[in-house]
């Protein structure tokens, strides 16, 4: 990943270490130190908040800026994330998706990026490491074409720490695909501009409206850039959504990220058994490709959204967008929260989920509950409850004793 | 960009326009072709010390750099009063990002210029005391320890004035703010708290640390010029009285700043690589009372009953500062 990012010729890289992002920036610092990546400043900063702030300054000064983070680090950046998008700075950032504490947990889920889905950044999710590499190259083009920052989300550990043979695009082709960065506006003493003025009620809505319109343009720009990518690199690059065996499916599982690989294998197995099932991968989550989703699904299909994060007190995050996209369509939808905090989403679990949801060769059987937690360990819940009850009882007893 | 007509000021012997002085000695403000970095017409309060300080600092920096300057500004009064969309008072390349990240953003600009081989363009970061000593402090310390090529300016008005006069880490003891109210047992801000960031900057052993006030604008200009001769992280802490927050008459701003130094409460000095290299001696020492009693934020020290105990504690602070920096030259015998 580091090599791919280096071939995009970033001019300023700043980073603060957090697992599982570290070795991407370690690799980049090594490339800069070894002189393999020239014309680039590597800045070691004191926090993620500073990392993104350094990128903001660098981008506003006309440099191609890159950083990477995960989890708590992404949340620590939150204020600066909105600022970068508000200022229209085309920063590219890798998010090595990881859970958010408490309880502290370093393993993979999508809670971090999903928590920041409204911050004005484009969010792309990679299925595997080849996609992650390719999406980074596309991300720089996309960001700079629209002047909007882009997050490339890749599952922490599952992808970031996987040993997988990938084709790292060569420098000549990357240069052909990705021209040097030409900023929209830049801090130039020769032509001074004021960037980051205060905007009151008289124009704030319009600023946000325009930001929305700009981001929606990505829905046409991304497929074009993906096509161009295929021409230059001779390989398909994912764009908005990736349907897998959905055409005649009775049931389609919607998911983001690396779980799509396991899902595809499960679907192949079930197809062999004569079950009509498919999957729909969402690569571009922000802006949400509602039209592409509608086009990929047809009436009568049952939809399960596999959520690697969820909104406590409400339910699925991706499901909300799916429901809005499928408004007026006959696609019964259910939400399954799966793989939180690094719990593996296995083939047997997915198999059980899909078969129970009703994809028998002779059609649907049972209607699944609207919100379900995959592989929920009920025994653990009971054990936990009894421990809590026991300690509460002990506390009561102690206070009784003290009263006496 | 619309260019505002430069006003030409000429008063007194050592003031801006004295034609008897060698041109190099004259204030930047005496130069018709000065940058006029922040134009008039902005929305600062009458008598604002920060607006005055910022104009002198940036015009001096523009002269020192031949106009090759980028400015990064933290959220705060200076940012709000200068850029109400669609207006801007800035005639320099200027970026505002957030409240707490101005040092890091400035470091990012410097990194970009380094990457592009444009180190002829210099970078200034600026913030109030809240953006410097409190919310921006982590980023500031990072800027210092990396020795990034940025001059960071703190315009210290000793509180959160933009949000309505709340206490900051730079608010002096006994000062009344809206979050350190005056009650019988709690006479304003507590003693034994607060920090003096120039010391902390010196502890980073950066090339240059200096303090200044708007009472001595020539000294302020000279320090900006000195800072611009050096590379690496530099820090300039400028005391800028706030008529609104301090409860003083708008016409008193300069006098209050002068009394802050003449009382010994605010030391004016320079330091290089962690060592003090020069101090501005007090020529006419005044008791702290002279400084305190002109400000409504300290009125409770005098009314309804005179708090001799608290005035004495503040005087002791001034005495210690004078001793520490040697602000009063030993009398020649």
Question: Summarize this, please?
Answer:
Chain A has 404 residues and is of the alpha/beta class.
Explain what you see.
The complex is a heterodimer of chains A (404) and B (333). Chain A is an alpha/beta fold. Chain A folds into 2 domains: 2-184 and 198-233, Thiamin diphosphate (ThDP)-binding fold, Pyr/PP domains (Rossmann fold); 241-378, 3-Layer(aba) Sandwich (Rossmann fold), CATH 3.40.50.920. Chain A is built from 14 helices and 16 strands. Chain A has helices spanning 2-7, 22-33, 48-60, 71-76, 78-86, 111-115, 129-146, 171-177, 204-233, 259-272, 290-296, 318-325, 347-356, 378-403, and strands spanning 12-15, 41-44, 65-69, 92-97, 122-125, 150-155, 194-195, 241-244, 251-255, 277-282, 284-286, 302-307, 310-311, 315-316, 333-337, 371-373. In chain A, α7 (129-146) links the parallel β5 and β6. In chain A, 48% of the residues are buried. By secondary structure, chain B is α/β, with parallel strands linked by helices. Chain B has one domain: Rossmann fold, CATH 3.40.50.970. Chain B has 11 helices and 8 strands. Chain B has helices at residues 49-64, 77-82, 102-115, 129-134, 137-146, 197-203, 217-229, 243-246, 253-262, 288-292, 308-325, and strands spanning 69-73, 93-96, 122-128, 151-156, 208-213, 234-239, 269-272, 275-279. In chain B, α3 packs parallel to α5 (137-146). The longest helix of chain B is centred in the C-terminal third of the chain and has 18 residues, at 308-325. The relative contact order of chain B is 0.11. The model of chain B has no long low-confidence stretch (mean pLDDT 93). Classes of the chains: A alpha/beta (404), B alpha/beta (333). The A-B interface holds A 11-12, 14, 39-41, 43-47, 49-50, 53-63, 65, 79-80, 83, 87, 187-189, 191-200, 203 and B 1, 67-70, 72-73, 79-80, 83-86, 88, 90-98, 100-101, 104-116, 121, 138-139, 141-142, 145-146. β7 (194-195) of chain A pairs parallel with β2 of chain B.
């Amino acid at each position: 990943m580091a090599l791919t990012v280096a071939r995009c010729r970033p001019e300023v890289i700043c980073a603060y270490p957090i697992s599982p992002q570290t070795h991407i920036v370690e690799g980049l610092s090594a490339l800069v130190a070894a002189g393999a990546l020239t014309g680039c400043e590597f800045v070691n900063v004191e926090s993620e908040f500073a990392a993104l702030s350094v990128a903001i300054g660098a981008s506003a000064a006309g440099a191609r800026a890159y950083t990477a983070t995960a989890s708590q680090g992404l949340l620590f950046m939150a204020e600066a994330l909105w600022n970068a998008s508000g200022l229209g700075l085309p920063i590219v950032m890798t998010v090595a998706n990881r859970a958010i504490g408490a309880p502290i947990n370093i393993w993979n889920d999508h809670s971090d990026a999903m928590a920041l889905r409204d911050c004005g950044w484009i969010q792309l999710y990679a299925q595997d490491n080849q996609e992650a590499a390719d999406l980074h190259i596309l991300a720089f083009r996309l960001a700079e074409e629209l002047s909007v920052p882009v997050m490339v989300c890749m599952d922490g550990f599952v992808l970031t720490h996987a040993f997988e043979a990938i084709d790292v695009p060569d420098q000549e082709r990357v240069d052909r695909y990705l021209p040097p960065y030409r900023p929209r506006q830049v801090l130039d003493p020769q032509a001074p501009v004021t960037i980051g003025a205060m905007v009151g009620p008289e124009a704030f809505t319009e600023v946000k409206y325009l930001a929305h319109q700009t981001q929606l343009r990505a829905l046409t720009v991304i497929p074009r850039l993906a096509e161009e990518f295929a021409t230059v690199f001779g390989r398909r690059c994912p764009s908005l959504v990736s349907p897998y065996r959905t055409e005649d499916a009775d049931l389609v599982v919607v998911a983001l990220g690396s779980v799509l690989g396991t899902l595809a294998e499960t679907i192949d197995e079930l197809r062999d058994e004569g079950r009509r099932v498919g999957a729909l991968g969402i690569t571009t989550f922000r802006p949400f490709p509602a039209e592409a989703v509608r086009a990929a699904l047809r009436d009568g299909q049952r939809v399960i959204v596999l959520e690697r994060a969820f909104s406590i007190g409400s339910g699925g995050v991706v499901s909300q967008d799916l429901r809005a996209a499928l408004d007026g369509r006959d696609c019964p939808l259910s939400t399954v929260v799966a793989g939180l905090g690094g719990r593996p989403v296995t083939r047997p679990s997915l198999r059980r989920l899909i078969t129970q949801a009703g994809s028998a060769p002779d059609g649907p059987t049972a209607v699944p509950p609207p919100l379900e937690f995959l592989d929920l360990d009920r025994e653990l819940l009971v054990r936990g409850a009894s421990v809590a009850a026991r300690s509460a009882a002990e506390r009561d007893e102690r206070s009784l004793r003290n009263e006496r | 960009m619309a260019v505002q007509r430069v006003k030409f000021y000429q008063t007194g012997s050592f003031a801006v326009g004295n034609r008897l002085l060698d041109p190099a000695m004259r204030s930047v403000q005496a130069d018709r072709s000065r940058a006029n970095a922040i134009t008039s017409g902005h929305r600062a309060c009458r008598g604002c010390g920060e607006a005055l300080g910022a104009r002198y600092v940036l015009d001096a920096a523009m002269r020192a750099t031949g106009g090759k300057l980028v400015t990064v500004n933290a959220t705060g009064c200076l940012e709000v009063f200068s850029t109400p969309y669609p207006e801007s008072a800035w005639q320099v390349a200027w970026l505002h990002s957030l409240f707490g990240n101005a040092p890091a953003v400035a470091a990012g600009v410097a990194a970009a210029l380094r990457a592009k081989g444009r180190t002829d363009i210099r970078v200034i970061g600026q913030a109030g005391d809240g953006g410097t000593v409190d919310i921006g402090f982590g980023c500031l310390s990072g800027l210092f320890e990396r020795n990034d090529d940025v001059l960071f300016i703190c315009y210290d008005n000793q509180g959160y004035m933009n949000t309505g006069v709340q206490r900051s880490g730079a608010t002096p003891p006994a000062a009344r703010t809206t979050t350190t109210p005056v009650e019988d047992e709690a006479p304003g801000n507590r003693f034994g708290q607060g920090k003096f960031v120039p010391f902390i900057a010196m502890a980073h052993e950066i090339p240059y640390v200096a303090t200044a006030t708007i009472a001595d604008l020539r000294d302020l200009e000279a320090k900006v010029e000195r800072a611009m001769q050096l590379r690496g992280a530099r820090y300039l802490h400028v005391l800028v009285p706030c008529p609104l927050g301090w409860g003083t008459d708008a016409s008193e701003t300069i006098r209050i700043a002068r009394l802050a130094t003449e009382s010994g409460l605010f030391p004016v000095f320079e330091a290089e690589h962690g060592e003090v290299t020069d101090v501005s001696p007090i020529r006419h020492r005044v008791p702290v009372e002279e400084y305190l009693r002109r400000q409504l934020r300290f009125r409770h020290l005098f009314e309804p009953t005179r708090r001799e105990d608290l005035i004495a504690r503040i005087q002791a602070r001034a005495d210690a500062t004078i001793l520490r920096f040697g602000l009063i030259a030993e009398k020649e015998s």
